[in-house]
Amino acid sequence: MEQPRGTPGWMRGSRSLSHLTQEEVTAFQDAYLDLLTRFARGPEGAPPDAKPVLLRWFALPAE
Fold first, then answer.
1. What top-level branch of life does the organism fall under (predicted)?
2. In angstroms, rounded to a whole number, what is the distance separating the alpha carbons of residues 4 and 14?
């Protein structure tokens, strides 16, 4: 991945393929939302070296 200027070392990504049921996708979504809650904070509570970071997750059948 090419790093945007001024942000060396910040960019991360992951891709995966798994065989899940609808219920497992829902459980994954719930776990993801829990993780977001764990790390959520606004600029007022962030350390001086923190940057706004876009986080995205989606699931769709690969058929």
1. Bacteria
2. 17
- Tens digit of pLDDT per residue, the chain (63 long)? 565 666 778 888 889 999 999 999 999 999 999 999 999 999 999 999 999 999 999 999 988
Q: 3-state secondary structure string, the chain?
A: CCCCCCCCCCCCCCCCCCCCCHHHHHHHHHHHHHHHHHHCCCHHHCCCCCCCCCCCCCCCCCC
Say how far apart CA 63 and CA 43 lie, in whole Å: 40
